[in-house]
């Protein structure tokens, strides 16, 4: 066997191991209730704004605190707290994807992605980042 | 009855449709004729030449048709013919002329046209330079052009099958059911278009897409040449053009990718130049395959080894180009990407899958067909040879690209994974860490190999002759690593290792350039490796030491109910509230919001923020600059908000700011003034009531660690610690400082802006009573304010500089590859 073949074999084995480990690193889409079962882990939750789409954000009280109600795919409504400035145009979002974890009865969210209905047919995606 | 619509300009659209069809037919004819020309190459020379003439002329007609489409569409956009859907959807009358060009490639079809345009221009170059491989390479190029042309054809087949979407479709055809189009004079109601997405109204949007698409388009040429080589079964003639085109492509595509990064950094508020977003990855992956292929081709040129893998890498690269297009344009990325094309692309789904298969089957089946005839060297390469380590490096690059590709393709394989495991997979919680943790090891090995391999020779190396050099270079790199690592506070074993490897790469490439190569024309490879080393070093430093400075660290702010300090910091404030004219500390700066430029006409408002660095004792201003982050608001009568950052550039760092929120506009804000300072004597534990909360004096502090204060010998400095509460509890604390330096007194005020707005000053210390005289100025809450986020990027210029050097290295190597006379194939300085 050639030396280069040995090195390549080692590299390929390492790469396969790493690629398998990728799956462990991926997050999953959950609902509020399934996320609550492992409160230490961060998940993705997809939902829509509820509560008349009201966003509580007053930078004069705290520029890093934004809260609103979200209904997840299973229909459960929870309060979501986002530690950052209000994501642009979140009121208009058709759907939001939140990254974070459950904290008691609230969802603490570190990142928000939104799908907004656009002026014309194709969608625009905007993003808000907390950390 | 057919309605006669009033005021429509139908001619440009008809011309456009004609040219699209012409470009498609001409490319097909060119492809077929080139193919025929190859078929009769040996059987009938005259017939072959006739076909060749037809093929060349059809390709020229095809190119002319694409240019004509370009001008027709541009005419429609610049003349605001909103009866056309493309103009209506992507432009409006208020747009600046330079952005009219951006409208062109904002849409799916416009960017396909741009891509096809570059293909055809590069194709013309191949016609003139392709020589013995022209007909075969051009068959491939014309075939790909025909595939691309179908994407703008807009032909409807029976059974609801649509091939491509025409950019010349009329608004009323696009939205047939809308009642407005029942009226003959509908155009009088469509007076303006939808305009360009504000995020794209930026000069980067004008220059970045053409460069990126030139890079994308140029990868076709090396692919066409390797297909030609396989087809002909000639494995020498293709080397020179393939190498030169690969170097061109590597340089331009690399430039395009990093320009995308610069665009994100300069004008989008993602807070960085690279986020491992799927769209970014989609162009990085083919580039990595291309660089791998380029290196194995050099091995083949010098030693006759690695031919098969070279072909394999090139095919992989070109398949990756179309796969990237598939990922970013069909909407499959959906929620996982910030800026992928979505929605519009549903009709492209099968279209692009078919093209991927055409390209992949063409390449891989030819390799398999020719595998027996490819020259193979039976003997084993030596361990200490350039080809051995170059090969390992290229192979590793390929594997790294595969990893990025698999992670990026999550939305593609997620349905399958769900079917198998029952879990619906989402992207990693921290995607940047996900990629970084794997790719850092690739970067470590690649930087090390890319520099060391320069010193090894092809076929055999006299190790003793380079041993001393390596020892010297390693010593220099260790010293530099210690210096940089210490000054930049690089911690963590893998980061220290990467620091050393990137510095070693810089040092070794420089040594090689000036010690071994000497002449500038030969320096391409060492220059690009040198640039790569600097780029990696820049990525390391900016990534590790990026600091959010709008985070108010003063007084150790801990949010309520958070006992874990790490969590507290993570969740604490990264956005800071700035009231007009009230300075707030940020790192060693005072930031003050000075007002805005908003007018009712311009949807864009600039916010003037003053940054000052002061001498802590004398209050003398050491440095002063203004930043103007801006915000687009109220676009087209809708509520909208889009912030663009503003940065202060230093040679060694950038201060990057953007506005995340602003106060509602009221006209009488300016008439409100602050109240004056009021003095209070407080002992430890005393409470002081304010209009919106209270503060408690926690005592003096003589051990002051505050970035705004630089200690000098003989200073007497005392801070007063005050915790601030609102009605719900403690919100933060402040520490005004009192300094005596050379008998002169100075005070450093502190500001709290959240809910209890006040400027706090330590007016006097009364030692006999052990009390502090605290002066308070409350801030009227109706003052205009902005919410600002500020990030400090150290040494970002290493990233840009390294990229530029690397690209210059590519282009210099390309120049060398083109101009180099036929030297002995065994020449050893090629790399």
Overview of the molecule:
The complex is a heterodimer of chains A (131) and B (831). With 131 residues, chain A is of the alpha+beta class. Chain A is built from two helices and eight strands, in the order αβαβββββββ. Chain A has helices spanning 3-25, 32-36, and strands spanning 27-30, 43-49, 55-56, 66-72, 77-82, 95-103, 106-116, 124-129. Chain A has a five-stranded mixed β-barrel. The longest helix of chain A is centred in the first third of the chain and has 23 residues, at 3-25. Chain A starts with a helix and ends with a strand. Chain B folds into four domains: 9-195, no CATH class; 197-373 and 380-427, no CATH class; 565-665 and 786-793, no CATH class; 678-783, no CATH class. Chain B contains 21 helices and 24 strands. The radius of gyration of chain B is 32 Å and the shape is flat. Mean pLDDT of chain B is 84; it is low at 552-572, 635-639, 666-673 and 824-831. Strand 1 (27-30) of chain A pairs antiparallel with strand 3 (425-426) of chain B.
The helix-strand sequence of chain A is HEHEEEEEEE
Structural class of chain B: alpha+beta
Largest interface: A-B, 53 and 67 residues
Please give the share of residues in helix of chain A: 10-25%
State the low-pLDDT regions of chain A, or none.
118-131
Total domain count of chain A: 1
Q: Taking all residues together, what is the mean pLDDT of chain A? A: 80
Number of strands of chain B: 24
Main beta sheet strand tally, sense and closure of chain A: 5 strands, mixed, barrel
Distance between the termini of chain A: 50 Å
How much of the sequence lies in strands of chain B comes to 15-25%
Instruction: Assign the CATH topology of chain A.
Output: OB fold (Dihydrolipoamide Acetyltransferase, E2P)
CATH class of chain A: Mainly Beta
| Morphology of chain B | flat
Oligomer: heterodimer
| Span of the ends, CA to CA of chain B | 71 Å
Mean pLDDT of chain B: 84
Q: Helix- and strand-based class of chain A? A: alpha+beta
Radius of gyration of chain B: 32 Å
């Amino acid at each position: 066997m050639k030396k280069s073949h040995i090195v390549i074999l080692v590299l390929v084995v390492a790469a396969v191991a790493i690629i398998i480990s990728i799956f462990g690193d991926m997050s999953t889409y959950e609902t509020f209730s399934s996320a609550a079962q492992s409160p230490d882990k961060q998940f993705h939750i997809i939902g829509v704004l509820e509560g008349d789409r009201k966003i509580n954000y007053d930078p004069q009280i705290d520029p890093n605190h934004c809260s609103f109600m979200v209904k997840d795919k299973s229909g459960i409504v929870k309060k979501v707290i986002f530690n950052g400035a209000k994501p642009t145009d979140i009121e208009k979002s058709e759907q939001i994807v939140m990254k974070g974890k459950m904290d008691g009865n609230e969802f603490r969210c570190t990142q928000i992605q939104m799908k907004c209905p656009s002026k014309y047919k194709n969608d625009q995606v905007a993003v808000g980042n907390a950390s | 009855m057919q309605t006669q619509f009033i005021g429509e300009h139908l001619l440009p659209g008809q011309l456009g449709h004609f040219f699209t069809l012409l470009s498609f037919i001409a490319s097909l004819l060119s492809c077929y004729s080139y193919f025929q020309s190859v078929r009769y190459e040996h059987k009938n020379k005259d017939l072959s030449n006739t076909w060749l003439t037809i093929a060349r002329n059809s390709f020229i007609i095809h190119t002319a048709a694409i240019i004509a489409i370009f001008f027709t569409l541009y005419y429609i956009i610049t003349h605001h013919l909103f009866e056309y859907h493309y103009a209506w959807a992507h432009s409006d009358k208020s747009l600046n002329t330079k952005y009219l060009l951006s409208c062109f490639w904002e849409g799916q079809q416009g960017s396909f046209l741009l891509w096809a345009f570059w293909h055809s221009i590069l194709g013309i170059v191949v016609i003139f330079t392709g020589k013995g491989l022209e007909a075969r390479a051009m068959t491939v190029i014309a075939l790909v052009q025909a595939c691309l042309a179908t994407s703008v054809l807009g032909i409807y087949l029976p059974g609801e099958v649509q091939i491509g979407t025409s950019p010349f479709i009329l608004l009323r055809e696009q939205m047939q059911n809308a009642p407005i189009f029942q009226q003959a004079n509908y155009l009088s109601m469509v007076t303006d278009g939808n305009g360009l997405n504000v995020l794209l109204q930026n000069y980067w949007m004008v220059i970045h897409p053409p460069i990126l698409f030139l890079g994308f388009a140029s990868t076709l040429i090396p692919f066409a040449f390797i297909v030609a080589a396989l087809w002909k079964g000639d494995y020498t003639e293709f080397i020179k053009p393939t190498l030169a085109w690969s170097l061109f492509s590597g340089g331009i595509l690399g430039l395009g990718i990093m320009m995308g990064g610069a665009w994100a950094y300069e004008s989008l508020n993602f807070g960085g130049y690279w986020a491992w977003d799927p769209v970014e990855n989609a162009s990085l992956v083919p580039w990595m395959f291309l660089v791998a292929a380029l290196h194995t081709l050099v091995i083949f040129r010098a030693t006759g080894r690695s031919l098969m893998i070279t072909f394999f890498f090139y095919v992989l690269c070109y398949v990756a180009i179309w796969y990237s297009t598939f990922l970013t344009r069909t909407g499959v990325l959906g929620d996982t990407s910030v800026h992928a094309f979505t929605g519009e692309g549903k009709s492209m789904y099968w279209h692009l899958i078919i093209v991927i298969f055409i390209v992949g089957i063409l390449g891989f089946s030819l390799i398999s067909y020719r595998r027996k005839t490819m020259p193979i060297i039976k003997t084993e390469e030596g361990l200490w040879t350039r080809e051995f380590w170059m090969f390992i490096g290229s192979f590793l690059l390929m594997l790294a690209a595969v990893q990025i590709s698999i992670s990026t393709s999550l939305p593609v394989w997620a349905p399958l994974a769900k079917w198998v495991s029952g879990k619906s997979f989402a992207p990693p919680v921290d995607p940047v860490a996900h990629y970084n943790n794997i790719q850092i090891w690739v970067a470590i090995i690649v930087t090390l190999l890319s520099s060391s391999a320069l010193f090894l020779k092809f076929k055999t190396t006299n190790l003793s002759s380079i041993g001393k050099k390596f020892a010297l270079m390693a010593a220099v790199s260790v010293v530099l690593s210690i210096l940089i690592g210490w000054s930049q506070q690089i911690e963590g074993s893998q980061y220290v290792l990467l620091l050393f490897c990137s510095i070693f790469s810089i040092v070794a490439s420089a040594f090689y350039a000036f010690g071994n190569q000497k002449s500038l024309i030969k320096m391409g490879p060492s220059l690009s490796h040198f640039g790569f080393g600097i780029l990696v070093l820049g990525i390391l430093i900016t990534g590790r030491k990026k600091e959010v400075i709008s985070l108010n660290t003063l007084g150790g702010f801990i949010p309520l109910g958070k006992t874990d300090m790490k969590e507290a910091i993570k969740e604490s404030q990264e956005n800071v509230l700035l009231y007009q004219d009230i300075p707030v500390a940020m790192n060693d700066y005072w930031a003050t919001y000075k007002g805005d430029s908003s007018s009712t006409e311009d949807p864009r408002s600039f916010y003037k923020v003053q940054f000052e660095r002061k001498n802590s004792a004398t209050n003398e201003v050491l440095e002063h600059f203004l930043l103007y982050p801006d915000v687009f608001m109220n676009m087209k009568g809708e509520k909208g908000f889009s912030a663009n950052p503003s940065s202060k550039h230093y040679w060694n760092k950038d201060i990057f700011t953007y506005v995340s929120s602003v106060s509602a506009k009221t006209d009488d804000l300016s008439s409100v003034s602050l109240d004056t300072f009021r003095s209070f004597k407080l002992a430890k534990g005393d409470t002081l009531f304010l209009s919106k909360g209270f503060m408690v004096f926690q005592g003096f502090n003589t051990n002051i660690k505050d970035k705004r204060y630089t200690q000098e010998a003989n200073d007497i400095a005392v801070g007063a610690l005050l915790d601030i509460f609102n009605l719900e509890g403690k919100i933060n604390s402040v520490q005004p400082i009192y300094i005596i330096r050379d008998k002169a007194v100075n005070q450093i005020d502190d500001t709290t802006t959240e809910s209890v707005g006040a400027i706090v000053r330590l007016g006097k210390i009364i030692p006999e009573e052990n009390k502090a005289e605290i002066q308070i100025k409350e801030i009227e809450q109706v003052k205009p304010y902005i919410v600002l986020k500020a990030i400090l990027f150290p040494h970002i210029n290493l990233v840009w500089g390294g990229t530029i050097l690397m690209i210059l290295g590519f282009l210099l190597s390309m120049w060398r590859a083109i101009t180099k006379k036929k030297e002995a194939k065994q020449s050893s300085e090629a790399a």
